[in-house]
Specification:
- By secondary structure, the chain is an alpha+beta fold.
- Helices cover 24% and strands 32% of the residues.
- The chain has eight helices and 17 strands.
- Strands 1, 2, 3, 4, 8, 9, 10, 15 and 16 form a nine-stranded mixed sheet that branches. Strands 5, 6, 7, 11, 12, 13, 14 and 17 form an eight-stranded mixed sheet that branches.
- It is globular.
- The termini are far apart.
């Protein structure tokens, strides 16, 4: 099946990821910082399933430009990582931040450290019947480590580190996402999804195009090649398979993280199901590469946007242009931020801007179904645990 739209990412000649040097001129600002870090994420549809995000953090003051695509399973061009890759890589980076920070606090030398993480999601039901629902499952985390701690002390530190991650706030408990809806420049009430108090934010429109890149000698993201194959229960690999009108499938996105000698985390994303290309991410908390919270926030926005594209493509609806402004709020890390507490987060707050000739009721349904089928909004409303395995190396 032919890919949808044009390969704007692949043909642009622009670095896929970069730090934005003129965020104020672009007019993206960070939300009020009420917990420790507050991030505003703009996402727009480029063509087909290709999307562009700008993410600004109140804590770092930095703004990152990131792009996402889908592979053949969604008739995409595979020009950039899928949305779920961003959350997996951001989560692995966040876990590594907390493990290393906690070890430093306790005066423990870690000689080798590799994280091998698996995230799982489900998609079940019928799109024509509007019963399709996205789900999220518990995370598997294998820690390969060389240090002098005994098994019991090591297990305790690693478990505490996963709780200390700011992402813990989205995993633990059940957070209902909040939304505002705009159609053709006019605010509409939401139908089924919970409505956010306050006015609809201004539509960012084409302000994305104003962003300018900071020069960098780092390849912040690049394809590695085909992901090594493994069996995944209810896994899928067929071209266009994620567009089937009736589904009962399971997704598995992996992340393998190590710390380079220069202090930057190198994370390889694994696309096990739906099967596809593996991409390498760089992440850092010092401004050299996107920080963990920025990757996580972009992933949530990208995933939600994909569901709009999937719904309207499957039902042949008119939606030539759509954008979101998403706010995420995280506490500081329990170890990296020195709070000594488990990570916390607030509900995701998203403003949606649709350009469509469809009715107001159909615009509301686009939002409802996109939330209902979004894996990462399911991640937020599901109480999830991290299953830990330790391997000494």
């Amino acid at each position: 099946m032919a890919a949808l739209g044009d390969d704007i990412i692949g043909s642009s000649g622009v670095a896929p990821f970069y730090k934005v040097t003129n965020a104020d001129a672009v007019s993206i600002d960070a939300p009020e910082n009420r917990k420790g870090d507050a991030l505003r994420t703009w996402v727009r549809s480029l063509s087909g399933f290709q999307k562009e995000a700008l993410v600004r953090s109140a804590k770092t003051g930095e703004t990152w430009r990131l792009v996402s695509d889908e592979g053949p399973y969604l008739n995409g061009y595979d020009a950039a990582p899928c949305p779920l890759a961003f959350l997996s890589c951001g989560m692995a980076a966040s876990f590594m931040n907390e493990i290393l920070a906690l070890a430093k606090i306790k005066g423990i030398e870690i000689r080798k450290l590799k994280l091998i993480q698996d995230n799982y999601y489900t998609m079940k039901g019928s799109m024509p019947k509007r019963t399709m629902v996205g789900g999220a499952e518990n995370i598997d985390l294998q820690v390969e480590i060389d240090c002098d701690l005994n098994d019991a002390a090591l297990n305790e530190i690693l478990i505490n580190a996963t709780y200390a991650s700011p992402l813990n706030g989205l995993m633990r408990g059940q957070l209902e996402s909040l939304f505002k809806l705009g159609k053709n420049g006019t605010e509409l009430p939401t139908a089924k999804v919970a409505e956010l108090d306050g006015a609809l934010f201004p539509d960012p429109g084409n302000h994305f195009a104003k962003s300018e890149a900071e020069a960098s000698d780092l390849d912040l993201m690049e394809p590695v090649g085909p992901t090594p194959k493994k069996d995944v229960v209810l896994g899928t690999s067929a071209a266009g398979g994620s567009m089937a009108s009736e589904q009962d499938r399971r997704l598995n996105i992996g992340a393998v993280a190590v710390m380079r000698e220069d202090g930057i985390k190198e994370i390889q994303q694994m696309q096990y199901s739906p099967y596809g290309t593996s991409f390498r991410f760089l992440s850092s908390e010092d401004g050299r590469a996107p920080d963990a919270n920025s990757l996580i926030s972009a992933g949530i926005g990208f995933c939600f946007m994909t569901q709009f594209g999937r719904f309207v493509s499957m039902l042949k609806l008119d939606l030539p242009d759509y954008r979101i402004v998403q706010d995420t709020h995280f506490s500081l890390g329990g170890a990296s931020g020195g709070t000594g507490k488990a990570g916390e987060a607030d509900s995701i707050e998203t403003h949606v801007y649709l350009e469509t000739t469809e009715s107001d009721e159909t615009a509301q349904e686009m939002l409802d179904i996109s939330e209902q089928t979004c894996f990462l909004h399911a991640f937020c409303r599901t109480d999830l645990k991290t299953k830990l395995k330790v391997v000494r190396v």
